Amino acid sequence: MKFYLVGGAVRDMLLGITPKDKDWVVVGATEDEMLANGFIKIAANFPVFIHPQTKQEYALARSEKKTRNGYHGFEVNFSKYITL
Length: 84
Prior knowledge:
Elements: E1 2-6, H1 8-14, E2 23-27, H2 31-36, E3 40-41, E4 48-50, E5 57-60, E6 62-66, E7 74-78
Parallel strand pairs: 2-5
Antiparallel strand pairs: 1-2, 3-4, 4-5, 6-7
């Protein structure tokens, strides 16, 4: 299980700004492993979790494939074998 800082926190750090919050992508884990490590699942359709102490957001790595027009036309794959 590896954790990668992503999103606005990375941008802020590159600009010399202290991030207000931190979001993470998790590689090499399953939903069950995250739950077993005390993370709290917060999204019904996506494996997104909150760390129990820091309250920071952790999302499992995923791949997306466009299958139809519009915002809902995606096939999403979550696997512990997806890498960045």
